[in-house]
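FORM 12-B: Structure-to-Sequence Request
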């Protein structure tokens, strides 16, 4: 049996030491240090490996008289192992499309051959469904050229995976299913089949017999990840890994797992809504500020290339989404402007998303007025109400305020301040804002409207969705957006006069 070297590892920051601590001396977290058993190969094995690599023996290879490899002596290597960077070719790598344009956007254009992608998310958020549907898309695309996709499940049986594949229309003859938790079996399947894509669900359920530790522990997760990365780089087979998360939302296992893989993607969403967001936390082959939108349904995962309809109500988005059905006057009345609503645009990566702010103002019968919010920052609402009273001459201090967004959208960045204040003032004064008007800008404590980052991206998206007027802060340079009238304001009072 191989000798083991016992030390202690922090699953939060990766600190290692020879002694156990209840509190990590590096990151200060409690209860994150576990015992780590690292297998150490025998001396004869290391000696034979060194001799095979160098083809010589003795002092030239760094092997001492006792047969062990010296750490301080050099080992001969093959000629040409190190080459000038100018002589290394720059052949374009052909990426593998996933069948989802949103997934490809997050990855930087598709899956790079030989890369290892870690997809993490909350339980039941749809990680396995997304990857199984991706496996079906790639298997369908590469069926003519004989390509195969290997899906290894350590959590479900083959029959259970087959049922889910039937539901989401991912049944393909060249999609291979395997149900095992043994790492050696997984590596053998990849080497035997040489698939176009390999998916392992999940990294915490695969166990290596060469190291100690329970399934999902720091020792096992690190060994499984290292072995899968090694076979992916050696055989040039891309591997998609499913990762579990802890109670606080971080990826389970040692932090070194995120350093080992090439791409780390977070699959996020609210369990009460069907909206799912895929964002890249780390990406060696593309940007890390791209976001993909998906919709979870009974038939599987559907990508949302234009999320405007998700975050806008019918009244706010009927005209902007091109509603030209020619219905009767009853529908025209339903599309009339509604008081207490205002649309703004937030940035999530490079994507500009429309968010509709809805507010309700009522007379309070409580000693302390109620402030109920959803999708916005409650502390920000308290500050904006005070600024609205002081600089906008709208007194809402004694009213019950209800502020919410549509479909679980988040309007927590400062650029949404102007739309929140406009929605509150509209509800208080019973003055609806035109549904083709949007407001973008940050409000300071002095009542000034401050610029928002990447304003041009937001305005171009507003013009594309059919908005005709945008109330924004003073621009530092002249900007012209076809089809969009830009109203520049410098104070909260001027912004309310333009909107109402």
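FORM 12-B RESPONSE
SEQUENCE OUT:
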């Amino acid at each position: 049996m191989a000798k083991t070297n016992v030390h202690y590892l922090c699953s939060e920051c990766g600190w290692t030491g020879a002694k156990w601590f209840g509190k990590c001396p590096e990151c200060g977290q409690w209860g994150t240090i576990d015992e780590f058993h690292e297998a150490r190969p025998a001396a004869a094995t290391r000696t034979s490996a060194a001799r095979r690599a160098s083809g010589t023996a003795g002092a030239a290879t760094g092997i001492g008289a006792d047969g062990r490899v010296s750490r301080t002596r050099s080992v001969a290597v093959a000629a040409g192992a190190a080459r000038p960077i100018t002589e290394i070719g720059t052949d374009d790598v052909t990426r593998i499309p996933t069948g989802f344009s949103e997934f490809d956007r997050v990855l930087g254009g598709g899956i790079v051959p030989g890369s290892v992608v870690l997809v993490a998310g909350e339980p039941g958020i749809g990680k396995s469904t997304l990857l199984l549907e991706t496996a079906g898309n790639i298997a369908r695309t590469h069926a003519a050229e004989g390509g195969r996709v290997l899906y290894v499940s350590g959590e479900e049986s083959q029959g259970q995976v087959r049922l889910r594949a039937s539901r989401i229309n991912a049944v393909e003859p060249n999609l291979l299913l395997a149900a095992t938790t043994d790492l050696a079996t997984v590596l053998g399947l990849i080497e035997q089949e040489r698939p176009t894509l390999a998916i392992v669900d999940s990294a915490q359920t695969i166990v290596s017999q060469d190291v100690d530790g329970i399934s999902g522990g720091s020792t096992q997760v690190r060994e499984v990840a290292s072995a899968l990365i090694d076979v992916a780089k050696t055989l040039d087979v891309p591997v998609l890994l499913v990762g579990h998360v802890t109670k606080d939302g971080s990826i389970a296992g040692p932090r070194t797992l995120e350093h080992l893989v090439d791409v780390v993607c977070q699959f996020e969403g609210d369990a009460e809504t069907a909206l799912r967001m895929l964002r890249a936390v780390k990406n060696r082959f593309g940007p890390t500020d791209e976001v993909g939108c998906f919709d979870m349904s009974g038939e599987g995962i559907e990508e949302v290339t234009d999320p405007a309809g998700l975050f806008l109500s019918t009244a706010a988005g009927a005209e902007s989404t091109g509603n030209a059905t020619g219905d009767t006057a009853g529908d025209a009345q339903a599309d009339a402007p509604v008081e207490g609503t205002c649309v703004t645009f937030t940035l999530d990566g490079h994507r500009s998303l429309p968010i509709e702010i809805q507010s309700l103002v009522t007379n309070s019968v409580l000693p302390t007025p109620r402030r109920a919010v959803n999708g916005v920052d409650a502390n920000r609402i308290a500050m904006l109400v005070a600024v609205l009273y002081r600089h906008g001459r709208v007194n809402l201090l004694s009213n019950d305020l209800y502020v919410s967004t549509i479909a679980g959208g988040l309007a927590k960045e400062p650029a949404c301040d102007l739309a929140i204040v406009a929605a509150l003032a509209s509800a208080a004064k019973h003055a609806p804002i035109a549904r083709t008007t949007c407001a973008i800008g940050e409000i300071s404590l002095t009542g000034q409207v401050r610029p928002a980052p990447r304003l041009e991206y937001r305005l171009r998206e507003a013009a594309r969705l059919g908005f005709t007027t945008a109330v924004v802060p003073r621009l530092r340079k002249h900007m012209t957006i076809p089809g969009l009238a830009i109203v520049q304001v410098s104070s909260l009072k001027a912004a309310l006069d333009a909107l109402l």
